[in-house]
Amino acid sequence: MRAYDSKLADFLTHLQLERGASPHTVEAYRRDLIDLGDFVEHEDPDTIAVGVLDEYAVALRDRGLSPATVRRRLAAVRAFLKHRAREGGRGDAGRTVPLPRLGRSLPRPLTKAEAEAIVTAPDATPRGLRDRAMLELLYGAGLRVSELVSLRVSDVDLDEGLVRCIGKGAKQRVVPMGKGAIDAARAYLQRGRPHLGRTQRGDVLFLNHRGRGITRQAVFQLVRDHARRAGVKSDVTPHTLRHSFATHLIEGGCDLRSVQEMLGHASIETTQVYTHVSPEHVRKAYFKAHPRA
Fold it and tell me: Catalytic annotation on 193?
């Protein structure tokens, strides 16, 4: 049994026998912590870096989960890691996991200039071509990081300018790709992907240097690296690019229903939370549209 699974089983036993938790509570903790295990690829919980926990918190919000659900899952993570600390694991990383306040909280979208600088930051090496294609799809097609790393070569139609992805609930959607994403994907497929790894696994689109599918953690890191290289001071994650994708579409006049379809949201209310338009855009729209303006 892997270290993560055995230590999770120990924690669930502790909940049941020592804390008297109900079967329903134990099952809820089990589901939430299995999700964390999948995210960290079942790494030993005593070695999970604090930065990875921050990335997990962002990934939960990226899935469109409610603040209450995100708070519950992160509370389960804190309880698990506190237990590990008492059992002789490393220092209590659980205390560093922030619990979000309940209520509406929006990330700051990038400016169009910042997004452009980040997307064009990679060089022309095979890894740089890969990174450019990934950044173009995160910002140019609004993909979730989980959708990005799951793409197959056959999911990208460069002739039609479309990318097919599997979103939440195993729902498939097709999203348009702009010229920048098409050109970047074509360059990566021709001059980047063939040079990543001596042997390559299946038809996974985005590969690491060993020829295996790139991980979500690696995408988080490369997004931050290219943002710093582009001179963007704020913390930038894959979700920042997705949120900026939606914001810039709305500011450009795209209707909310179309944005909902491209983001893969089941509810229009979720899209309204994830999109944000600047006060200046609202002001311009008012003066353009109102007869008494």
Answer: no
